[in-house]
Amino acid sequence: MTRIAIIGGGVAAHTTLKSYLAAAGGDRDPSTDTVDIFTTEPHAPYRRPEVNKGMLLTGKTPAEVALPGGILTEPGVTLHLSTVVTAVDPAAHTLTAGDTTYAWDRLVFATGAGPRLLDPTTNPWLADRDVHYIRTPEHSAALRTRLAGLAPTDTVVVVGGGVLGLEAASAAATLSDAQVHVLEMGDEVCARMLPPTASRWLRDRHAEHGVTVTCGLDAAALAAQIDRLDPTVVVVSVGAVRDTMLAEDAGIAV
After folding, report:
1. Can you name the CATH fold of 3-112+242-249?
2. In the structure, what pLDDT confidence band is assigned to residue 41 with cuts at 50, 70 and 90?
3. d(CA 158, CA 26)
């Protein structure tokens, strides 16, 4: 008997399940060799990059960008949607979700990462503004609806000139009539990923589509730019933070 618990419902969780089922093959007894997948989202695993590309830009639904779902209906596999795991006990080999305790023999943390949230106390320009972060389909749907209602007199500011920030700016320029600005603290957009020539090319392509990109800003200059632009909508895309709190609370070194 092997009871596997997977915390997280993204690509890593889906890949873990797929690999386990393939490795187990016909030796697995679904009545005793079980897999429980716990995800805080109300959706089955989907392709995360599509949150920006497909969902925000074209309005696709999570079902339209879902990962192959056949393995999720295999005997002995249970997908727990909208379920928050609140505690893990490595010594007892249990986890708690809601009012239920689940026993496990093997535990996989596939919790991924979330957007880096800016602290309003050190970034006062966030106050009283319509600020959006993008990670889930719900985030994309809310921003897509907001952008569609903007007028030419409105302004969208994207804080962060990485891949996701530029994708958000492109979507804003496509979906709305608003003026779109990207504010980046680095010397160039996507500077950590691309050589300078490629970064400049990417910035020029956005400029051709009406997006104004300003780089090389320190914190004070960034705040001044936002105060000057007085944006209707702010999209923050300044990196990601690993979601390791649950593991750390369980005393697991990460």
Report:
1. FAD/NAD(P)-binding domain (3.50.50)
2. very high
3. 51
Domain with CATH 3.50.50.60 in the chain: 3-112+242-249, 124-238
CA-wise closest residue to 165 among 149, 143, 148 = 143
DSSP per-residue letters across 64-120: GGBPP-GGGGSTTEEEETT--EEEEETTTTEEEETTEEEE-SEEEE---EEEPPPPT
The verdict on domain 124-238 having CATH code 3.30.565.10 is no
Determine the pLDDT at residue 21: 96
pTM: 0.91
In sequence order, which residues have a C-beta less than 8 Å from that of residue 127 and are 6 or more positions away? 120
Question: Can you say how many angstroms the Cα of residue 120 is from the centroid of all Cα atoms in its chain?
Answer: 21
Among 35, 31, 39, 53, smallest CA distance to 9 is for 39
